[in-house]
Amino acid sequence: MGSGGIGTKTSAIYYLENNKFFTKYDPTIEEWHEVTMEVGKESYQLKIVDTAGQETFSAMRELYYQSCDGFIIGYSITSKGSFRVAEEMLQGIGRVRVMEKV
Q1: 49, 32 in Cβ contact below 8 A?
Q2: FRET pair for 77, CA 20 to 30 Å: which of 1, 41, 84, 97?
Q3: Which tens digit of pLDDT belongs to each residue from 62-80?
Q4: Closest to 51 (Cα-Cα) out of 32, 23, 25, 78
Q5: What CATH number has the domain bearing residue 12?
Q6: pTM for the whole thing?
Q7: What's 66's DSSP letter?
Q8: Which domain holds residue 29?
Q9: Smallest Cα–Cα separation from 68: which of 38, 42, 47, 94?
Q10: Secondary structure class of 8 (helix, strand, coil)
Q11: Could you give the 3-state DSSP secondary structure of residue 2?
């Protein structure tokens, strides 16, 4: 999750799926991905949703806050606005879910 247009979520998902970063950013509204990760000798199946960060899709965020087990919030280090959006998302998650700091 994060501000629209920064591409961090899409980039992170692409890296998890392909073990490399891509050079072309293609904005999404909502994309679902399944990734198998191995940690030690255990295998984990992750179901990841790449959400739209644009304000016009902010109403959908409450649904994600309620239904997801974990969240990755991204922001651009060159955009204070995207950092503010990340803070707002974290607060929104906190209003809906009991959070454990990792």
Answers
A1: yes
A2: 97
A3: 777 787 788 888 888 888 9
A4: 32
A5: 3.40.50.300
A6: 0.58
A7: H
A8: 8-96
A9: 47
A10: helix
A11: strand
Q: What is the DSSP letter of 40?
A: T
Q: Is 85 left (phi over 0), alpha (psi -120 to 50) or beta?
A: alpha
In residues, how long is the chain? 102
Cα separations in angstroms, 58 against 12, 36, 51, 92: 21, 29, 10, 11
Question: Is 22 part of any domain?
Answer: yes
51: nearest Cα among 102, 15, 86: 86
Q: What is the pLDDT of residues 8-37, one digit of tens each?
A: 556 666 666 767 665 565 555 667 778 888
How far apart (Å, rounded) are the C-alpha atoms in residues 78 and 67? 31
Tokens read off for 78: 């060159």
- Domain count of the chain? 1
